[in-house]
Amino acid sequence: MRPYDNEKLPRHVAIIMDGNGRWAQARNLPRVEGHIVGIESVRDVVSATRELGIPYLTLYAFSKENWVRPRDEVRKLMELLGIYLDKELPLMLEKDIRFNMIGEMKDFPKKLQEKMHSVMRKTARHKSLTLNLALSYSGRQEILHAIISLFEDVKKGSIKKINEHVFKKYLYTGTTPDPDFLIRTSGEMRLSNFLLWQMAYTEIFVTKVFWPDFRRKHYISALREFCKRERRFGRVEDID
Ligand code: FPP
């Protein structure tokens, strides 16, 4: 028996990777150790997503609000991001994974910006999986940014009609389909300013497992749960 119904798998999974700090504190380790082990979970989930043929995965790695964390933690997270990109690029090239950063690129140190641009360029034509990494991301900022860009185009006369379909293209996620499934680790019941426009009809799954412990088996079991959900998008069930 297959552990899930391939037909019903989501096309786009979004994940709030939460609980790295608490995972480390519970082991009397510095918080950064949670982020280091959390990268292993990222690896596991990315490869499972690719193997299952799910074409879009969006990971919330660093919010616009996270910059006020202790300087050392932020510095270490930036360092880990650089290491992650260097280390994962060969796999992205081999496995046809497209890397896409969503968020405020200008907030990052110049060198890291260059690295992100370079990985995005090198993987731009890949089709099997689009990996969106939300960095210095804020859902409200994204919506504001979209409104400002849309307004510019209206002034230029290149946009005549505004509707949801047109507006969506101005978001960082562009033409990416909206997430079908949101997973949040560590038990918190919040959206935390993540993909606010895109998640209007997303199915939500919260697990108490901390992100560094969240591996393939947890992911598969969350996806199984998704396959059982009935999605109505505001409609009622068909009545014969
Ligand atoms: C939330 O845990 C996690 C983060 C703010 C960072 C997520 C980063 C990683 C998984 C590693 C870096 C990822 C890549 C792709 C390079 P928290 O620190 O808020 O945990 P807490 O709520 O227990 O304090």
Explain how this protein is built:
The chain has 7 helices and 6 strands; from the N terminus they run βααβαβαβααββα. The protein has a 6-stranded parallel β-sheet with strand order 3-4-2-1-5-6, sandwiched between helices. With 240 residues, it is α/β, with parallel strands linked by helices. α4 links the parallel β3 and β4. The protein is globular and about 55 Å long. Helix content is 42%, strand content 15%.
Q: Which key terms come to mind for this protein?
A:
6 strands, Undecaprenyl pyrophosphate synthetase, binds farnesyl diphosphate, 240 residues, alpha/beta, single chain
Count of helical stretches = 7
Question: How do the strands line up in the largest sheet?
Answer: 3-4-2-1-5-6
CATH domain fold name: Undecaprenyl pyrophosphate synthetase
CATH architecture: 3-Layer(aba) Sandwich
Rg to the nearest angstrom? Answer: 18 Å
Mean pLDDT comes to 95
Low-confidence stretches: none
Bound molecules: farnesyl diphosphate
Structural class: alpha/beta
Largest sheet: 6 strands, parallel
Q: Roughly what percent helix?
A: 40-55%
